[in-house]
Amino acid sequence: MNIEMTTSLDGACCPPIAGERLREVEAEQAATLFKALADPARVRIVNVLATSAGPVCVCDLTPAIGLSQATVSFHLKKLLGAELVERESRGKWAYYTIRPGALEELAAVLDPTGG
User: Fold this and answer.
1) Which residue among 13, 20, 24, 44 is least crowded, i.e. fewest CB within 10 A of its CB?
2) Residue 60: inside a domain, yes or no?
3) More confident: 109 or 94
4) Residue 64 — pLDDT band, cuts 50, 70, 90?
5) 3-class DSSP state for residue 86?
6) Is residue 106 within 8 Å of residue 16, measured between CB atoms?
7) CATH of the domain at 83
8) What predicted TM-score, i.e. pTM, was given to this entire model?
9) Could you tell me the pLDDT band of residue 88, with boundaries at 50, 70 and 90?
10) 13 Rama class: left (phi>0) / alpha (psi -120 to 50) / beta
11) 107, part of any domain
12) How many domains does the chain have?
């Protein structure tokens, strides 16, 4: 399921949880982000990507996360669906990065001050 990543005035995909009452579509968008991060392996993948100097090959993520290539690919697909990461093909390998602005958008959703 793809969500529509709409950008509000503050640059977030969805209004802050602590802000005004969320509409159903906004709650669904926030839930999609939370579901994508609801698995420890996905959180670790995001951490590796966020702390890497450049794109990371799936072949390097596999040993870094300690899971099989198929399992890492499954988790990456979930992160792609939530639009948290981007994928670039180079020959037979796929390289992943955090989508520019994704972490800032996520932080804005969780901002307890509401913006």
Assistant:
1) 24
2) yes
3) 94
4) very high
5) strand
6) no
7) 1.10.10.10
8) 0.78
9) very high
10) alpha
11) no
12) 1
